[in-house]
Amino acid sequence: MVLPSRFFKSFYAEKVNEIGCVYDELRLPCCGPLRCAPLFCRRAERTLIVKKHMKRNSILLTALLVIVVATLLVYGVFSASGTPPSDLSEMSGGASPGAASETGSTGSSQAPSDLPSESSGGDSGTVAPGETRISFLACPDNIIHPSVYYDAIRKAAQANGSTPVYTSLATGKYDFADMYEYVADAIRDADISYVNVETLIGGNDNKISGYPMFNTPEQAGEQLIALGFDIYNLAHNHMLDSNSDEYLINCNRFFESRGLTTLGYYKDQADVSNIKIIEHEGVKIAFLAYTYSTNGLSLQAGSSTVIPYISESLITQQMELAKAQADLVFVSMHWGDEDRYEVNAQQRSTAQLLVDLGADVIIGMHPHVIQEMKWVEREDGGRCLLTYSLGNFISGMQDGFNMLGGMLAFDIVRSADGTCSIESPQFLPVVTHYTKETAVSGDDTGHRNYKIYPLEMYTEELAAQHGVQIWDQTHTPTLVGGAFTVENLKRTVKTYIPAEFLADWLQ
């Protein structure tokens, strides 16, 4: 399967091909199953890469010396005799030295100009003359439950050799970096990256809290910025968790003050017409975002803030503006039924409206499980890449099916004639992993050792250690299968995501 961009090369080729394919033979030691996956122990990785590079370089050097010696012998012999080898013309592209080709040029020993160079790439990310390729990555719901930020406090204390203090949340030290370790390269390598900030950064001056009224520590937002995300979606059902727009305004300011792009917040009615556009290498991409609800909470009287609820009139108005200003339009949709794999009627009708109005990509969020992904043809001959739900990125949820999500990656391609398209989309499944330990407060579930794993790296050993241990006991439909295992996770992905969007290892 064609990989969509350079980031897949760095992420999977470097992490998996260099390490994972030889792990079973080498049985490299690991720093512990709860701290990292055996395949990706950093010490083993460095050692293995060095050994492989030394071996490869040795082979290449030997081959080069053989070629040089052979060439010197051949040309030395025939230079002395004045007679060229009989097949030299074939070696030089069809003409002997000094002889004219059919085009009138003289032959040479240089490679033909139409042969691919080392920089032309293989089957991934190849750029045609006059073509521009931009890699895009979308990450799903980033949900910072109390157990997640309690774990971040524990990690920070461990790094400092101190005892964790869980009572001073507003002034506490947090370390979220380790949780994103195995997806960090993918995020940083993408030209444009998106994340759904499901729990607002309402400011540490306010009470840090979890479900149902979230206020996420500022350090969690700082970690998202450090990872290199460009676009932060704020349009979701937790927009008014402060029972006002206070957290929403604070969260928008938190990212925009750092020169980053947010979606979903409008300071007033006039602001609704200001379409967020990102321009990269001459390609203009408009971003829109909508939510089905704000959990029954409303704006306080006198607030000028506009919440982008799903409505045909608002979508039509903004789509027309976006199409007039940009080459492509990407839409973030917070919709659907939680914990349900099935797509509901509102999702389907709204998706069709967006497609009819010219949307190029629809990024679905909210159900906390993965849902259908497909191409939808437009009447103008184009097509829209539609994802109904990417599931979760990180969360402290307790049902096993909520642990499975996916990153959406594709290439934005502008051809030499100026037309833009979406190519080589891939669904990259990820697993939120944690272990079960003793809770430290009433809002804590005791989940610790949080880490997001690409499913390709996840092992049955880790699955057996997961704090959920079960798939589901309360909802239907359940995971394909009945146990929290890697095989059932894979089966679930393949049930809802078509093969054309999956890597070869999932076929």
Give a short overview.
By secondary structure, this protein is an alpha/beta fold. It has helices at residues 6-26, 42-81, 88-91, 146-160, 184-189, 218-227, 246-256, 312-325, 345-356, 460-465, 486-496, and strands spanning 132-142, 192-197, 231-233, 261-263, 276-280, 283-291, 328-334, 361-365, 373-377, 383-387, 392-394, 404-414, 420-436, 447-454. Strand 12 and strand 13 form a beta hairpin.
Main pleated sheet: 8 strands, mixed
In total, how many beta strands? Answer: 14
At the first level of CATH, the class of the largest domain is Alpha Beta
Mean pLDDT, all residues: 81
User: What share of residues is helical?
Assistant: 25-40%
| Rg, Å, rounded | 27 Å
Q: Can you count the helices?
A: 11
The run of helices and strands is HHHEHHEHEHEEEHEHEEEEEEEHH
Determine the CATH topology of the largest domain. Answer: Purple Acid Phosphatase, chain A, domain 2
Shape: globular
CATH architecture verdict of the largest domain: 4-Layer Sandwich
Strand content range:
15-25%
Low-confidence stretches: 1-59, 72-124
Tally of domains: 2
CATH homologous superfamily label of the largest domain: Metallo-dependent phosphatases
> What multimeric state do the chains show?
single chain
Structure classification: alpha/beta
Ends distance: 10 Å
